[in-house]
Amino acid sequence: MNSLTMTAVRSVLQGVSQIFFLSNSWTGLLILIGIGIFDVRMATLVLFGSAVQAFGAWLLDAGEEATQGLMGYNGALVGAVLGYELDSWKAGILLTIIGALSCIPVHRLFQKIFALPGLRNAQLPVSTAPFCTVAGLLFALVMPWVSTGAPSSSEEPLVGTFLGIANEFAEVVLTDGWVTGLFIIVALFIGSWKVGLFGLLGSIVSALFLVILPLPMNVDDVSTGLYGYSAVLVSIALGTIFLNHLSLTTRILLALLGTVLTWLVQALLALTVIPVYTWPFLLSTWIVMLLVAETRSKPASI
Question: Does domain 157-297 have CATH number 3.20.20.70?
């Protein structure tokens, strides 16, 4: 392959890896394999969504962001959700094109919002906000044709907890199963051991606490991973991506705070008609980063 083709392939795979804040083509490839084990059509639409958004960004002179995968991961997630919710190849491909391209202006809109004076100091990341916004609108459009299956689960405490930890990684990309989860965990450690460790921190803490705490859910519920996937992302984001100017101890504590917030946000969203997707991760991350920015902006008392 020539250099242009290799660059394009790397960009698309890095678009997949950026779902977990990594710019690593091998990580992206392993995540795709993990998704493919769950559903080949989903993996195809994930790859296609990343490619469509990257190509659209390149046409709009956002080539550097596209090369790093920063204009691909939201399109990849749009492809994942459409592959999960729709049985039709034609509808999946068409809506992935529309959704992935729509993520580009939505991305720019969030960048402009976060550059406003009241928010600028917090340096809030756009992250998966375009995906959540676009996919939410698409969900309203395709709701009559949505077809989904039940996630894997277990009522046995040890098996259920392990399955829950693996499923929390898998559910980030709307897949299911311990094999897919393990593929993603390995992929993250290949990209960055810090990302892998903080991802496991959020996942393990979420799974264990949701099992132990007197909440209206049991091991069977927790084992699906549906209540902890945002904890994986928020722990990575606050622990090793956006707040690296803080001490390790502070970042661990903030990652744990963010994990707790994801549970609260998800519980509130469950009371609405809004698809949850990764909103709990996003809102929790933004809240913590705004609190950190506010604390830093206050003059020290004498």
Answer: no
